Every structure is written in C-alpha cells, then in structure tokens.
Amino acid sequence: MTTTQHSEHRTASRRRHVWHFVRHYLEMVVAMVVGMVVLGPVEELVWPGLDDRLDVHVLVMATNMAIGMGAWMRFRGHSWRAVTEMSAAMYLPFAVLLVPYWAGAVSGGLVMTAGHVAMLPLMALAMLLRPAEYAH
Fold first, then answer.
1. What is the widest separation between alpha-carbon atoms in the chain?
2. Is 11 inside a domain boundary?
3. Residue 30 domain-assigned (yes or no)
4. Do 98 and 67 touch, CB atoms closer than 8 A?
5. What is the model's pTM?
6. What is residue 29's DSSP assignment?
7. Considering the domain boundaries, does residue 8 fall inside one?
8. Which of 25, 39, 112, 134 is 20 to 30 A distant from 70 in Cα terms?
9. How many separate domains does the chain show?
10. In tens digits, what is the pLDDT along the chain, a chain of 136 residues?
11. HEC letters along 90-114
C-alpha cells in the first residue's frame, strides 16, 4: 500500500467513525423525542394534572425522554453506565435551572428552553468522554 493509499484509507476510516458517532447522537435525540411524545399522553391519562407545576413538568418530561433514549441505547447494546450518564444529561440542566426559578430569578419559559438546549451539548460531552462506547 502506497503512502497516498494509506492516507486515503485513514481518512475514510476517520469519516466512517465520525459518521457513526453523529448518527448515534441523532438516533438518541430522536428516541428522546419519541419518549416525550409517546409517554406524555400516557402520563396525562394515568395521572391528570401531574405536571401542572413547571418544576414537576420538566422533571417528568426529562424522565419520559430518558426512558425513550435509555430503551434505544439498551437496544443498541450500550451499558447501563452509559445509559445512566446519558440520562443525567436530561436532568442536569433542569436541576441547575430550577434553583433560580424557585428563587424567582428566572422565568418558566427560560427553564424550559434553556433546559432543552443545554441537554444537547451535555449529551455530546457524555459521548466524547467515552468514544469507544458510541463509535460502533
């Protein structure tokens, strides 16, 4: 194999690994949305009014997303540790934002929007900390 061929092979291999990583990330985001969309109405049937308070609502919603994502991750063969770490990315933004919300320093809209936005880079960070877990 020539140097040029070897370099091209490494580049193709790197692209393939990056694509697997990105695809995996997108699959988890879709699974989160599915969990939220499917479990939200079930939650309302089982316990109407459960999420009338914003703080309860965001935590129940994070749970619905974590269930959907965790189920998909287990289906894809991920460890319980990885599922737990990724689920923490669903809760951490809300846990941080609820403190100033309860103190009256931020609005419910900010908690909802910033919580959802912040979980996305936290998920990417969890993946980057364990690349072998997510590159397959």
1. 67
2. no
3. yes
4. no
5. 0.86
6. H
7. no
8. 112
9. 1
10. 666 666 676 777 788 888 888 999 999 999 999 999 999 899 888 888 888 899 999 999 999 999 999 999 999 999 999 999 999 999 999 999 999 999 999 999 999 999 999 999 999 999 999 888 887 6
11. HHHHHHHHHHHHHCCCCCHHHHHHH
